Amino acid sequence: MAAEALSDAERRVLQEQLVDERQHVERRLAALVQSFDDLVAAADLEPPDDEHDPDGTTAYERAQFASMAEASRLRLTQIDRALAQLADGRYGTCETCGQPIGEERLAILPSATRCVTCAAGN
Ligand SMILES: [Zn+2]
After folding, report:
1. Cβ < 5 A residues, ion ligand 1
2. Of 56, 19, 61, which Cα lies nearest the Cα of 40?
3. Please, are residues 26 and 76 in contact by the beta-carbon 8 Å criterion?
4. Residue 10 exposure: Cα atoms within 13 Å on the Cβ side
């Protein structure tokens, strides 16, 4: 039950999951950045003004890309923190309150660095 009960094998599996997820998120972020650059390049061909963009579609899409990219970057940060915790033995412990995060939550979200209570409080 306790965080320190993780075996070396469990730790390796978790590390692989986190590294896999990290690569997945990195690819998604790279694709987002590429799409965003394309969008900006396309918009630059036609200067954005109200006549060319009457619905504000381009501005909306840019905002969407920006928030998706931001979410991906945040995810990478969380994964990196989880990997660091895994390396130094703090994995599975809430970084805010110090209580065990709980195996159920970690099974769903291996990169969780805070318990449900603390994550909900922010
Ligand atoms: Zn907590």
Report:
1. 94, 96-97, 115, 118
2. 61
3. yes
4. 13
Given this model, what pLDDT does residue 1 score?
42
In the chain, where the domains are located: 3-91
- Determine the distance separating the centroid of ligand 1 and the alpha carbon of 1, expressed in angstroms: 16
CA angle 83, 88, 117 (to 5 degrees): 65
Q: What is the pTM of this model?
A: 0.76
CA 120 / ligand 1 centre spacing (Å): 9
- What number of other Cβ atoms are within 10 A of residue 18's Cβ? 19
Residue 92, CA atoms < 13 Å, CB-side half-sphere: 19
- Predicted pLDDT of residue 40: 80
Cα separation, 7 vs 26, whole angstroms: 28
- The pLDDT, as a whole number, for residue 51 is 63
Mean pLDDT by 10 residues, the chain (122 residues): 68 93 96 88 69 70 90 94 91 93 90 93 70
